[in-house]
Design a protein that fits this description.
alpha/beta, 5-stranded mixed sheet, 7 strands, globular, two-stranded antiparallel ribbon, 159 residues, 31% helix
Length: 159
């Protein structure tokens, strides 16, 4: 983490979220933390258990304090897709965090993955964004739909 450039990405199970952040905190000065963690319920990835702060993104910001900007992103991308570097990301990316400057940096970085990013506002938006993930997981494991690794797209109607 200390050798990382401008951004550090956190991708751990939610059970390890706070402990990992506590260990990393001394090394995050001057960096942006990109938090892609979703607080999925233990034993049931089809539901979330939001922390008292409201979302994993907000919990990270509260733990790290105001001097280390936290940006939530990539929450709605299938873990299988993220783990396969040969697969393109098949959805749009909602980006949120309390620092507009940090959001813009993360959006520029994520756009290099040939995806569309959307500025979704402050960290409170993560409450909704993170909560979409278990819905997508439910679709991905359903035998009633003809696809896996579902994501979301934002687009305007044709009219």
């Amino acid at each position: 983490v200390a050798a990382a450039g401008e951004c550090v990405m956190l991708a751990v199970p939610y059970a390890a979220h706070d402990a990992t952040l506590n260990a990393l905190k001394p090394h995050l000065a001057g960096k942006i933390l990109i938090d892609i963690v979703v607080p999925l319920a233990p034993g049931d990835p089809k539901t979330v258990e939001m922390p008292p702060e409201g979302s994993a993104t907000e919990a990270a910001q509260a733990l790290l304090g105001p001097d280390i900007p936290v940006v939530g992103a990539l929450h709605n991308v299938s873990a299988t897709t993220l783990n396969n570097l040969d697969w393109p990301i098949n959805c749009d990316i909602l980006v949120c965090g309390d620092s507009l400057a940090a959001r813009k940096v993360v959006m520029e970085l994520v756009n290099k993955l040939d995806v569309k990013t959307y500025n979704s506002g402050n960290a409170k938006a993560a409450r909704c964004i993170e909560a979409i993930t278990p819905i997508l997981i439910r679709q991905n494991i359903s035998k009633a739909v003809p696809f896996t690794h579902a994501g979301i797209r934002i687009w305007a109607p044709d009219h």
